[in-house]
């Protein structure tokens, strides 16, 4: 809207035969208008963000897998966003202004406080509907939640998922991690659950690639104990072939994280 003062100023300038470009300059210099942007109040559509430590390409692969698992009737939008962009700008970017972001799914946590992060391995473990409830907090129909959970388990097979999120040979990684788990079971006398196996497949493959790329090390604080030390030693022993095959070294923080998957999950 043009204010009365501004219209009057322009009219007087025209009467004085001042050139239009000069009028524009004078308006800018002497009558700097006050303005504010008012966004329409609308209900934001729900969104799930996907991200991956290997880049936007893999995040889009995860996006595609989720889109094939979520009923269109829920009207959820799935959007792939670069991990470094999320870490840098947090929720101060246009995606969070335009959509009601329910969760972030990926292989590395961007640490955005007001949005829950769901590790990819937890999503595909298929252990009940607790994770699905986090993704769809407004859905109260338990039958629908169970159906979505089943879709996710069917569509997000380990091999398909690893092919999407890592540049490594998925078949070789699966074989290496499988051998590691077999040795670990023999050394510890435990029997890993399906949930633990899926979690280890995804986490160890992501760990291998992070270490190959020399990415910043995992920070994982725990309370040390003799039991934990012994468990980590057994995990380290089971990882020998992986360390040798991929030319990596698994540090104590990584071992502690794996310990909690194997002995605490």
From TrEMBL:
SUPFAM superfamilies, per the entry: PTS-regulatory domain, PRD
Pfam family, one: PRD
Gene3D superfamilies named in the record: PRD domain
InterPro entries xrefs: PRD, PRD_sf
GO biological process: regulation of DNA-templated transcription
PROSITE patterns: PRD_2
Domain PRD as annotated: residue spans: 168-265
Record-given protein name: Transcriptional regulator
Organism expressing this protein natively: Lacticaseibacillus paracasei subsp. paracasei Lpp7
């Amino acid at each position: 809207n043009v204010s009365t003062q501004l219209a009057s100023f322009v009219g007087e300038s025209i009467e004085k035969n001042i050139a239009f470009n000069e009028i524009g300059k004078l308006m800018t210099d002497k009558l700097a208008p006050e303005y504010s942007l008012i966004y329409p109040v609308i209900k934001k559509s729900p969104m799930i963000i996907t991200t991956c430590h290997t880049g936007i390409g893999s995040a889009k692969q995860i996006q595609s897998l989720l889109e094939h698992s979520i009923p269109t009737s829920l009207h959820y939008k799935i959007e792939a966003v670069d991990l470094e962009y999320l870490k840098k700008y947090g929720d101060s970017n246009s995606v969070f202004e335009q959509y009601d972001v329910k969760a972030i799914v990926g292989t590395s946590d961007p640490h955005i406080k007001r949005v829950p992060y769901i590790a990819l391995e937890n999503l595909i473990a298929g252990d009940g509907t607790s994770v699905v409830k986090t993704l769809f907090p407004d859905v109260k129909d338990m039958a629908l939640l169970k159906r979505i959970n089943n879709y996710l388990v069917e569509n997000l097979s380990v091999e398909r998922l690893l092919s999407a999120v890592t540049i490594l040979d998925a078949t070789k990684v699966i074989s290496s991690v499988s051998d590691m788990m077999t040795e670990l079971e023999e050394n510890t006398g435990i029997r890993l659950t399906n949930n633990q196996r899926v979690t280890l497949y995804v986490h160890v493959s992501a760990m291998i690639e992070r270490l190959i790329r020399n990415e910043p090390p995992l920070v994982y604080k725990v309370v040390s104990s003799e039991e934990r030390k012994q468990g980590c030693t057994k995990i380290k022993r089971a990882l020998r072939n992986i360390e040798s095959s991929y030319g990596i070294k698994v540090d104590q923080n990584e071992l502690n994280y794996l310990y909690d998957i194997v002995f605490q999950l």
